[in-house]
Design a protein that fits this description.
It is found in: Membrane. By secondary structure, this protein is α/β, with parallel strands linked by helices. Helices cover about 20% and strands about 20% of the residues.
């Protein structure tokens, strides 16, 4: 159980959008802008405003997924000029014979079995064959070589819960092309991502592509906040969660990241949090937390893990288009007003694709509980990464 400690929640507000920074400033060399660990540690502790941080190349965090970027390349300038005003959240789903971008069978090395729906009892796979098409701008096709070239000498980091892990695994599959033995090095130990004694898995993974010196990593942090054990001698101890302090992993390694995708949401609920000493504070944000939680997936009748259903198998049964110009979350839109930040709202995009959830299908012989939070892979998280690549 986690106890809430602190009085500043705005820094890590939850919900379901991607809040992406303005296009990266073109740089002739990755070394033309270097950050140190002290630079980022100071920004967390000296009380800089989010607007001040944005001016230095950081972008205000938000709900479902947040991308922070600090660099770019000259050879991308033409494309950025062409699409700088694109509203990627407005458009439609269209059939695409080139999808999926990888095979659920061929990418078993990187995919968790429970998310590779080709390995489950599921027999319908049309959900794999659609792409997102923005209404008034061109979004280039994702190409692994181009992406790795653009990310040469850079680090792309995903920090968050299991949805962030899905997006991480999706991107790894997209850039490896499902090669059985790709030229990829496991460098988890460089970030302290080593499986502890008795643990099922490490707290994350980090892989480097030596051909371009690109690193892609993931770290598990369900709330993005600092967790402190109440009794360090008790392995079953509860934890205090400090809302005004980022996860230690971020404080330690943020200076190494060129692109950072943050996500949080599902773990902000009363089943996993206890408003202990700060009950009044916790209650004051209850409506926001509940709102963020309800946007995380298509849960009909109940929450995702309590008997609700999402077993539709017909693609785009609820429509194929998103027509509104405004964000689905006016709270987030208001929070970043006046900042050099672009919101990419994937809520409406994803809500049209309820048939892409794991639903009742598992790797076990029998069907399981309906999972209306996570997605089949290949699937919708691939689109999130295509949008991320386009925004970069």
């Amino acid at each position: 159980m986690i106890h809430l400690i602190g009085s500043h929640f705005e820094l890590f507000r939850c919900g379901v959008e991607i809040l992406m920074g303005a296009p990266m400033d073109p740089l002739s060399s990755v070394n033309s802008k270097v950050h140190t660990k002290k630079d980022f540690s100071d920004s967390f502790t000296t009380g800089e405003t989010r607007k001040e941080q944005t001016a230095e190349g950081l972008y205000a965090p938000t709900n479902f997924s947040t991308m922070l970027s600090t660099g770019g390349r000259d050879d991308d300038r033409d494309y950025l000029v062409e699409s700088k005003d694109c509203n990627y959240a407005k458009g439609r789903w269209v059939a695409d014979s080139r999808k999926p971008l990888y095979s659920g069978f061929g990418c078993k090395q990187w995919l968790s079995e429970m998310w590779a729906c080709r390995l489950t009892q599921r027999t319908d796979f049309p959900y794999e064959t659609f792409k997102w098409q923005p209404e008034n701008c061109r979004m280039p096709e994702f190409e692994k070589t181009t992406f790795l070239r653009r990310m040469q000498d850079k680090t792309v980091a995903f920090v968050g819960d299991s949805l962030g892990r899905q997006q991480f695994q999706s991107l790894i599959c997209m850039v490896t092309g499902c090669e059985e033995i790709p030229d990829v090095h496991n460098i988890g130990s460089h970030y302290g991502l080593v499986k502890a004694r008795g643990a099922i898995r490490p707290d994350g993974w980090a892989y480097r592509f030596p051909s371009c010196n690109t690193t892609i990593l993931y770290y598990w942090s369900a709330t993005l906040c600092d967790l402190e054990p109440l009794n360090i001698t008790d392995p079953k101890t509860e934890f205090a969660m400090h809302l005004d302090r980022p996860a230690a992993f971020l404080r330690d390694y943020l200076h190494r990241f060129d692109v950072l995708v943050l996500n949080t949401g599902q773990h902000w609920n009363r089943g996993k949090l206890v408003g202990n000493r700060w009950v009044i504070f916790f209650s004051s944000h209850d409506s926001e937390l509940s709102s963020g939680q309800s946007h995380l997936g298509m849960f009909f009748n109940r929450d995702w893990n309590t008997g609700g259903t999402c077993d539709n198998s017909i693609p785009l049964a609820g429509g194929s288009e998103v027509l509104q110009d405004e964000s689905s979350d006016p709270v987030i839109e208001s929070a970043v007003k006046g900042l050099k930040v672009k919101i990419l709202d994937i809520t409406a995009i994803s809500q049209l694709r309820d048939e892409g959830h794991l639903s009742k299908y598992t790797i076990r012989p029998t069907e399981g509980m309906q999972d209306c939070l996570h997605w089949c892979l290949p699937g919708i998280p691939d689109t999130w990464n295509e949008l991320l690549s386009a925004q970069l």
